[in-house]
C-alpha cells in the first residue's frame, strides 16, 4: 500500500467524505439538472470545469484532483487479493458491450471512476510470482513517469509541443546508445508503438537503402527481408504493411540453440541476389519470444560485407537487430565477470557471460529495437527505435512545406521523419525513470535473479522423467518444456520426434497431450489460486515440418522465488494427473 502524507490509508475508501463541498458535489452529483433551461450549455461548461485538473496553481483544485486520484487508487486496491488477478475473473460479455451507447446525460466523477475500475477485474497481475508470462511488471517510478506523461500530455512530434519531454527522449536515446555500444553523439532514438513498430522502422530504412527513392516513387522491383524461422512475426507484419508483401519475408532455418543458421542465411541471400532481387533488411533476433534464441550478429555482419564485395553490390544490405527483449543484457558488457562484485550465482553468471558474447556485438547493427515494457520494467507500450546514425533517417525525411502547422520553431522536430504525428511523452518518461532508478547494477541484479530462477526451474524439471526442457541451449529468463504420458522417456521421445519423420504420429499425439495439460493449468488458473503459464503452438518445427507444442514459464518477476518455482511444477504435476485420469475414463 502506498504511503501518502496528505491522506491516511485507512481513509482511502471514504475519500469522498473528506472532500470540500464543491469537490464533493463535483464527484457525486449527476449533471442532468444543469442542462435544463436557458443557456444550459453554460451551466454544463461550469459544471465540467471541476472534472479537469486546474491549469494553474490552486490549492483547492489541486487538493480536489489529488483526492480524486486517491479515490481511483482505492478502487484499484479493493480488487487486490493474494490471487493472480484482480477482483473476479468472469466470462467476458462482448455481446452486451456492443449494445452500449453514449448517454444523453452527464455522469458523475465518482460513479465514472467506479465503473471504469470494473474493467480492471480479472486482469492478471504481471508481477505476481505465480504469473509466468512474457510481460515485465512495472516499477512504481515508471508508473509515475507514465502518469506524468498523461498529466502534462506532451506530444513528442516536436519540441514546441513537448518541451522537456523532447529533451528526455534525446537523453534516453543517448543513454541506450552508449549502453549498447553506439556513438551517442551520432545515434538517434524514437519512441514508437511497440516492438513491431521498431522492426517496421528498421525494415523501412533498409528498403530505402536498397531502392533509393522508394519513399516518393514507390516500389520498382522486388525487395526481400530475411530473418530466422523463430523470429517474431513482426517481420511479416512490417513487410506486409510496408507494401513489400508478407511473402517478401524469408524465414531462415535455425539450429537447436534457436539461432539463425548462418550457412542457411548465406544460401538464401545468394539465391536472392542471383535472381536480381534487392535485400531490404536482414533482421537478427537478439532474444526470441519463445526460447530466447540469440542470433550471431557478428557472423551475419561479416557475411553481408563479404557478399557485397563478392557480388559488387552498389549498396550494403541493412542490418536491423530485434533486441526488444535482449537489449537489457547489454548492462553486462562492462561487468567484471572474473571478480563478480555482485556475487551472482555461478549458474546465472555462466549464462550471462555467454549472452554477453553475442550482445556486445549489437553496435554492428544499423539499428535496433528496445522494449522497455518487457525487460525494462515499464508499463505498456514503451518501445524505442534506435538508429546507429541519425543520417540513416534522411531518406524518409518529409519537406516541412507538407506540414505547415508544425515545425516553425524549436530545435527538435522528429515528426519530420516519424510515421506517427501523435507520440505520447509518457513512455519516454517511464523509460527514463527506470534508467535513472535502476542504473546498470539495478538491471544486473534484476536480470541475474530472473536467470537464476530460470536455472532453478530447469534443475528441478530435470528430476521429472515425464518432462523435457526444449530450450536447453538458451540462457534467458524463459524455460520451454514438453510433457509426456506415463511410460514415455521424455528426453528420448523428444529427440526422436524432432528429427525422425517416422515419429510423426507420436509427435502429433504428444502435441495433443501437451495442449490438454496446458488447458488443465489454464482452467485451474481461472480460480486465481494456481500458476499461470503460456502455451506455444509451435516452439519450432521438426525436420519434417510439423509443429512442436510446448509450455512456457517466464521468470521475469522480481517477486519470483523458489517457492513459486515449486508451485509451478506442482501445478503441472496436478494438471498432468487430471489429463491422465480423464484419458483413462474416455
UniProtKB/TrEMBL annotation:
UniProt keyword annotation of Manganese present: no
Stored InterPro entries: GrpII_AminoAcid_Decarb (IPR050477), PyrdxlP-dep_de-COase (IPR002129), PyrdxlP-dep_Trfase (IPR015424), PyrdxlP-dep_Trfase_major (IPR015421), PyrdxlP-dep_Trfase_small (IPR015422)
Positions where N6-(pyridoxal phosphate)lysine occurs in the chain: 374
Biological process terms in GO annotation: carboxylic acid metabolic process; sphingolipid catabolic process
A Pfam family assignment: Pyridoxal_deC
Record keywords, A-Z: Lyase, Pyridoxal phosphate, Signal
GO cellular component: membrane
SUPFAM superfamilies per the UniProt record, alphabetical: PLP-dependent transferases (SSF53383)
UniProt-recorded Gene Ontology molecular function terms: pyridoxal phosphate binding; sphinganine-1-phosphate aldolase activity
Signal peptide range in chain numbering: 1-23
CC cofactor: pyridoxal 5'-phosphate
Family: Belongs to the group II decarboxylase family. Sphingosine-1-phosphate lyase subfamily.
Protein name: Glutamate/tyrosine decarboxylase-like PLP-dependent enzyme
Amino acid at each position: 500500500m502506498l504511503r501518502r502524507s496528505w491522506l491516511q490509508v485507512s481513509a482511502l475508501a471514504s475519500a469522498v467524505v473528506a472532500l470540500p463541498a464543491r469537490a464533493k458535489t463535483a464527484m457525486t452529483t449527476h449533471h442532468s439538472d444543469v442542462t435544463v433551461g436557458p443557456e444550459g450549455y453554460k451551466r454544463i461548461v461550469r459544471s465540467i470545469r471541476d472534472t479537469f485538473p486546474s491549469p494553474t496553481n490552486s490549492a483547492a483544485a489541486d487538493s480536489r484532483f489529488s483526492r480524486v486520484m486517491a479515490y481511483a487508487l482505492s478502487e484499484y486496491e479493493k480488487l487486490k487479493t493474494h490471487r493472480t488477478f484482480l477482483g473476479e475473473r468472469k466470462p467476458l460479455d462482448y455481446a452486451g458491450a456492443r449494445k452500449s451507447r453514449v448517454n444523453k446525460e452527464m455522469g458523475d466523477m465518482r460513479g465514472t471512476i467506479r465503473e471504469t475500475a470494473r474493467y480492471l477485474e480479472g486482469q492478471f497481475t504481471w508481477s505476481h510470482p505465480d504469473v509466468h508470462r512474457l510481460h515485465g511488471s512495472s516499477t512504481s517510478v515508471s508508473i509515475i513517469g507514465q502518469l506524468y506523461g498523461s498529466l502534462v500530455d506532451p506530444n513528442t512530434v516536436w519540441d514546441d509541443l513537448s518541451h522537456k519531454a523532447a529533451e528526455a527522449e534525446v537523453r534516453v536515446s543517448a543513454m541506450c546508445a552508449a549502453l549498447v555500444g553506439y556513438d551517442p553523439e551520432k545515434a538517434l532514438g524514437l519512441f514508437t508503438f511497440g516492438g513491431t513498430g521498431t522492426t517496421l522502422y528498421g525494415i523501412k530504412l533498409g528498403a530505402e537503402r536498397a531502392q533509393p527513392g522508394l519513399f516518393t516513387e514507390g516500389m520498382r522491383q522486388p525487395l526481400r527481408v530475411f530473418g530466422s524461422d523463430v523470429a517474431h512475426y513482426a517481420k511479416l507484419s512490417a513487410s506486409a504493411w510496408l507494401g513489400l508483401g508478407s511473402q517478401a519475408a524469408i524465414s531462415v532455418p535455425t539450429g537447436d540453440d534457436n539461432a539463425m543458421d548462418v550457412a542457411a542465411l548465406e544460401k538464401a541471400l545468394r539465391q536472392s541476389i542471383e535472381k536480381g532481387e534487392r535485400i531490404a533488411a536482414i533482421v537478427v533476433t537478439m532474444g526470441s519470444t519463445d526460447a530466447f534464441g540469440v542470433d550471431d550478429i557478428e557472423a551475419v555482419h561479416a557475411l553481408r560485407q563479404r557478399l557485397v564485395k563478392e557480388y559488387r553490390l552498389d549498396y550494403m544490405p541493412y542490418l536491423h537487430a530485434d533486441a526488444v527483449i535482449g537489449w537489457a543484457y547489454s548492462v553486462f558488457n562492462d561487468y567484471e565477470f572474473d571478480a563478480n562484485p555482485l556475487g551472482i550465482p555461478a549458474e546465472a553468471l555462466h549464462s550471462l557471460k555467454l549472452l554477453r558474447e553475442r550482445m556486445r556485438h549489437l553496435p554492428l547493427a544499423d539499428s535496433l529495437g528496445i522494449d522497455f515494457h518487457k525487460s525494462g520494467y515499464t508499463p505498456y507500450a514503451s518501445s524505442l527505435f534506435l538508429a546507429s546514425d541519425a543520417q540513416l533517417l534522411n531518406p524518409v525525411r518529409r519537406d516541412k512545406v507538407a506540414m505547415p502547422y508544425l515545425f516553425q520553431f524549436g530545435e527538435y522536430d522528429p515528426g519530420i521523419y516519424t510515421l506517427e504525428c501523435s507520440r505520447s511523452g509518457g513512455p519516454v518518461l517511464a523509460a527514463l525513470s527506470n534508467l535513472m532508478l535502476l542504473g546498470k547494477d539495478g538491471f544486473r541484479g534484476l536480470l541475474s535473479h530472473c536467470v537464476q530462477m530460470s536455472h532453478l526451474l530447469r534443475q528441478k524439471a530435470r528430476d521429472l522423467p515425464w518432462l523435457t526442457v526444449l530450450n536447453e541451449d538458451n540462457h534467458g529468463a524463459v524455460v520451454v518444456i514438453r510433457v509426456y504420458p506415463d511410460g514415455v522417456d521424455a528426453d528420448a521421445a523428444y529427440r526422436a520426434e524432432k528429427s525422425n519423420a517416422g515419429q510423426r504420429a507420436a509427435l502429433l499425439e504428444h502435441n495433443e497431450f501437451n495442449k490438454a495439460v496446458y488447458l488443465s493449468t489454464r482452467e485451474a488458473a481461472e480460480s486465481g489460486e494456481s500458476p499461470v503459464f503460456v502455451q506455444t503452438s509451435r516452439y519450432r518445427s521438426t525436420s519434417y515440418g510439423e509443429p512442436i507444442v510446448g509450455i512456457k514459464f517466464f521468470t521475469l518477476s522480481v517477486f519470483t522465488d523458489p517457492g513459486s518455482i515449486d508451485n509451478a511444477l506442482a501445478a503441472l504435476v496436478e494438471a498432468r494427473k487430471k489429463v491422465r485420469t480423464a484419458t483413462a475414463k474416455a
